[in-house]
Amino acid sequence: MGEQRAPVQEQRVTRRQSAQTPLHAPGSRLDFALFYSEHLGMLTRFVMRLGASPYEAAEAAHAAFVEAFPKWSQITTPRAWLRTVAARAYLRQTQLRDRPTDTIPDQPGGECPLAALVLKDEEQHVCAALSALPPRQRQVMAWHLDGFSHSEISDELGITVEAVRQNYARARVSLKRALGLTAGDQL
Mind telling me which PANTHER family this protein's record contains (predicted)? Predict the structure, then answer.
């Protein structure tokens, strides 16, 4: 008969536990999986702030993670790197959108991953206001809303810090006007 093996038990690892084990070495598969599960929603929202629909944003975010996986151990600033790649993926989608294509029939399958990404009414209103901004202002504001500093945005977009400040200030004025906020209201 052959040797019988004990069944392998699936082991659920929390972030705290995984940080203490060698499996969680930077650049490891577990490190990537944890980063993916923690940041996919934020990356999708970032792309939506650039003007994408939820489906376009999800597609661009997934494309960025697919591109990141084989290079994961070499990526030093994953949040910024993924946003740059996702933004480019979204721009490629918008260029392809204008080309006529055959419709793809709906495929039966599991739940849509976007069901977990439900925007509140306020967020939808802000996304609509963001989509009305000029492209550079929208880009700067999307990076800012994701917590990046002016200097980090400057580095990632390849523009001066002063250009980031100007675009940010103009975007704030436009957004306050679009959202019906007064000068003293916080954005």
Answer: RNA POLYMERASE ECF-TYPE SIGMA FACTO, RNA POLYMERASE SIGMA FACTOR HI_1459-RELATED
- The residues spanned by each domain of the chain are 24-97, 118-187
CA distance 142 to 153: 10
Q: What is the pLDDT of residues 141-183, one digit of tens each?
A: 999 999 999 999 999 999 999 999 999 999 999 999 988 887 7
Q: What does CATH list as the number for 24-97? A: 1.10.1740
Q: Which residues of 139-166 are buried (b: 16+ CB within 10 A; e: fewer)?
A: bbbbbbebebebebbbebbebeeebbee
Q: Distance between CA 56 and CA 89 in Å, rounded?
A: 9
Q: Which fold has domain 118-187?
A: Arc Repressor Mutant, subunit A (1.10.10)
Contact 89, 110 (CB under 8 A): no
* Sign of the alpha-carbon torsion through 59, 113, 121, 81: negative
Task: Look at the block and give the residue holding tokens 């934020």.
Answer: 42
- Work out the mean pLDDT of the chain and round it to a whole number: 79
- Euclidean distance between the first and the last CA atom of the chain, given in angstroms as a whole number: 71
